[in-house]
Structures are given as structure tokens and as C-alpha cells.
Amino acid sequence: MTRTYAAYAHPLWRRLLLTREAAVVALVIAVSLWAYSNVPYFGDQLTLTYLLLDVTPILLIALPMTLVIITGEIDLSVASVVGLSSVLLGVLHERGFSIPVAALIALVVGALCGALNGYLVARVGLPSLAVTIGTLALYRGLAIGILGTKAVTDFPSDWTQRASETIGGTGIPAFMWVFLLLAVVFTLALHFSPFGRGVYDIGLGSEAAHFSGVKVERTKFVLFVLSGAVSALAGVFYTLRFGSARGDNAAGLELQVIAAVLLGGVSIFGGRGKLAGVVAGVLLIGIISSALRLQGITVNVINIIIGLLLVLSVISTTVLAWVSDVAARRNRGARPTKTPAGVGTL
């Protein structure tokens, strides 16, 4: 939905509170309060720790995914990059590389995977859906082909403990500092820089953005590289947290990331969305999943509920845009026409 000058004529409180992002934040608070009151052990510190550890990879990948979807593209290969970086970390560690060096190589390979996606989408002009479906299979196949069906589990205990340690007695994982740092960087880039305005312009109209001076191809290429690099970082965290490198690590994670991004108010058609809403969307999915698991609900049922949330989020965007357009047309039709000064009537 495109914003107009009239939209910014509303008071600041209305522009902040009467938004889809604010509605998602309110829903997070409501669901959290309900779970705290009705779900056993949900208010425990250990539950908070595991909830945040579970959503950390999704939070990380959702940052660049938000920008990619705002441009009107999509990256379905992120979970496969997580798996490939996990395998590289394990194999390189087995061959004598230290964890920092192996992690750095994994990050570089993740960026190269994103660069391949970006080249095919931005330079060649292929649709991102088709490209990333293909690279999803390619990167996952490479991960399984390198390691086979075995797993690498002999990681140093100090590194695996670092991935799960908390900040003091708060129950908040220490790795959340990495997410907060990246969240600040992506927020500044998207909402407070010319680069971010270009991202929105591309989503609203790629050709118009090009004639406005936006480097469309370069912007999309950079976003896919960032998506690959951050997905590799999530893969390093995922591996150290569970202490296991496998080719099928994080299988299906891309669906949770996309569901959270769309639930957070980002339009699948591009041109609209805020990172604050996306973070709230990730937390909402994490809270719902955690509460349902504590009540003994199976993973299959949880996936059905998340899928329904995804469908409803996409439908609601279209419905809200339609309602706004209808209301705008009615307001224009009801607005009285003024007679120009100096023109009389016969």
C-alpha cells in the first residue's frame, strides 16, 4: 500500500499506534500474558533462555530477508546456506582449523552463495523465486555431499558453551548482543539512509526507481550477499549451539523466516515494511511455538498453526489495502467542491 501526503497529515500517535506493526507488538504482549497465566513453566527463566536461543537464527536471517522482500524479491536458499556453513565449520574443524578461522571461511562461502543468487537475479534478470528454489537444492546438496550422513560433534566445549551462555542471571543469551548490533545496523540502513529509501523505491517500482537514480541492480546484489553472509553466521551459531554439524541442519527454516517477516507487516508485493514489526513477528511465532510445546502439542500441529498465520498475514495485507482504497475514494467523493475565487454564478 502506497503512502500519500494525506497519510502524514495524521497525528504522530496515530501514525505510530494505528499501524500493522503496532498491532503485531500488541499481539505479542497479549499472547505472552496469556501464556504466562495459563501455560505451566512458561514464566520460568529457563523457558525464556530456550525461547530466545530457538528464535536467534530466525531473528538473524530475518534482518536481510526483510530488505530483500521489500524490494519485491525473495530468498528461499537461506536455510540451505545455514546447512552448508554448518558442514564447512565441522569439516574445517576436523582438519585442524580453529573455530574462528573455520567460521570466517564459512561466512565468506555464505556471502559467495548470496553473490551467486544476486548475480542471477540482479544481473541476469531471472526471477528470484526460481533462482533461490534452485540454489536451495544446490546448497543443500553440497552440504550433504561434503559430509554425507555422518555428523561432526567434537567441537571444543568452551565454544559450545559460549553459544548457549546467558548474560548474568537474566536468562537472555549472550549471543543476542550480536543480533542487537546487526539490528541497529540494518535499521539505520533501511530507515535512516538513502540506501534504505532506494530499497523501498525498488519495491514500489523497479523501473521508476532506476530513473530516479537508484542503483537497482547493485542494491539487489548487495542484499542477496548480505542474506547469504548473515545466514552463514546463523549456521555457525546453530552448529555451536547444538554441538553438531550436519548436512540437514536447519531444514525448513526458510519457511519460519518468511512467515515471521510477512507476519511482521512486510508486504509480499514489496515496498512496505518495518524491521520493528519483523522482530515482533519472530517473537510472536517463537512465543506461540514455545507455549504450544509446553502444552504437549506436536510439531506438525505447530507448523499448521504457523502456516495459517502466514496465510492470514498475506490476506490481511490485501484486505487492508482494499479497505483503505475504498475509504479514500469515499472521502474524495464526499468532499465538497469549492468555487474558485472571483467566479460567480449565473
From TrEMBL:
Record's keyword annotation contains NAD: no
TM annotation in the entry: 12-36, 48-69, 76-93, 99-122, 129-152, 172-192, 221-238, 250-269, 276-295, 301-323
Topology with respect to the bilayer: Multi-pass membrane protein
Record InterPro entries: ABC_transp_permease (IPR001851)
Record-level Gene Ontology MF annotations: transmembrane transporter activity
GO cellular component, one term: plasma membrane
Designated name of the protein: Autoinducer 2 import system permease protein LsrD
